[in-house]
TrEMBL record:
The keyword Repressor does not apply. Residues 330-349 are annotated as: Disordered. This is Succinylglutamate desuccinylase / Aspartoacylase family protein. The keyword Hydrolase applies. InterPro entries: AstE_AspA_cat (IPR055438), N-alpha-Ac-DABA-like (IPR043795), N-alpha-Ac-DABA_deacetylase (IPR053138). It comes from the Bacteria. It comes from Enhygromyxa salina.
Length: 349
């Protein structure tokens, strides 16, 4: 074979599948066709089916619904390598890249410019992203009992390892704590998110934010993998013991982003997971000559869930994602995740 010849994996392309068709104790790689592209070919979804030898739940692992959020893809690859179908109860459906066009273009959004995690559950007859979302729900999510949706921060920002979950829901609560995150953010999935759409269909779901975009972070990936395996262990799908992490996560009952009011060069001071106090200076903006234009102070006590890292700041850029600690009242519904805007709104997956 010529050294320059591109290696192709011969993987079957299907439009749908029935879990009963897969051999017990097997690993099957598929391409699930989603939509046609502009030259009449197919955009297909990489899927790995781990079919156990005994009955059990169906767990879905999804990543890269935002195409440049890559740590979750590596988490799924490590879970696939670790879980042995011959010792598995139930089935694990792994989708390492949900947003295939965005992943190939190294962009957050789908190839029609929309955020795929704002159009769920999509429409049968809709826009490009709506049709793709609808088919993802009917061809993948419809099979699931549980789902862990893996994300990272977006470009120019960094995140703690944190989980978004409705902590008044017993199933999503224990799934969230199994991740052993730094922070748990209590809310429902907003309209349009994969988590929200899955929960509406009875699929017990959480969103796990695994660090930063456009890179593999080995420590974050290892922690994310441990969290997934802990859930599989708690469900008795695998024989591994749950791995315990020292310390308890910080539980936040709400969160929001601070935004700049002037343009210039942004510098953010607090580190991730740092607790800050009301009035503490958290950032400043300087002009291009280095002269101070404005300082930004914390409006209330909180903890840093995420923060901006990109210095080039136009008015309205994000500064810090501030989590507000509190006690969850199990008798009250979880708060909504916040208003949906075209990018990353306050507290939304």
């Amino acid at each position: 074979m010529n050294a320059s010849t591109h290696r192709q994996h011969h993987v079957k392309i299907v439009e749908s599948f029935d879990l009963a068709q897969f051999e017990l104790g097997s690993t099957t790689k598929l391409r699930v066709s989603m939509v046609g592209n502009g030259i009449g070919g197919l955009i297909s979804l990489p899927v790995v089916i781990l079919r156990g030898v005994e009955p059990g739940p169906v767990m879905g692992l999804t990543a890269a619904i935002h195409g440049n959020e890559l740590n979750g893809m590596r988490v799924i690859q490590k879970v696939i390598a670790h879980v042995k179908p011959t010792r598995l109860k139930g089935t694990v459906i792994c989708v390492p890249v949900v947003n295939v066009p965005g992943y190939l273009n190294n962009t957050r959004h789908f190839n029609d410019g929309y955020d795929l995690n704002r159009v769920m559950p999509g429409k049968r007859n809709g826009t490009n992203s709506q049709v793709y979302a609808h088919r993802f729900m009917t061809r993948i999510v419809a099979h699931l009992d549980y789902m862990i949706d893996l994300h990272t921060a977006s470009f120019g920002r960094i995140n703690t390892l944190y989980v978004r979950a409705d902590m008044t829901n017993p199933d999503s609560a224990w799934m969230a704590l199994c991740q052993q995150p730094q922070i748990v953010l209590h809310n429902t999935g907003a309209d349009g998110t994969l988590r929200g759409a899955a929960m509406d269909r009875g699929v017990k779901s959480i969103t796990v934010e695994v660090g930063n975009p456009n890179a593999f972070q080995s420590e974050m990936v290892d922690d994310g993998t441990t969290g997934v395996l802990n859930v599989l262990s708690r469900l008795k799908m695998i024989e591994d013991d749950e791995q315990q992490h020292p310390g308890e996560p910080v539980v936040c009952v709400s969160s929001y982003w601070m935004y700049t009011e002037v343009g210039g060069v942004l510098e953010v001071y607090p580190q991730l997971a740092a607790r800050i106090r009301t009035g503490e200076v958290v950032a400043c903006v300087r002009d291009i000559y280095g002269d101070l234009i404005e300082e930004y102070r914390a409006p209330e006590d909180g903890i840093i869930i995420g923060r901006a890292t990109h210095p080039v700041n136009q008015t309205g850029s994000r500064v810090i994602h501030l989590g507000i600690e509190g006690t969850i009242d199990p008798t009250r519904p979880a708060p909504a995740a916040g208003p949906v805007d075209p990018d990353v709104p306050n507290g939304v997956d």
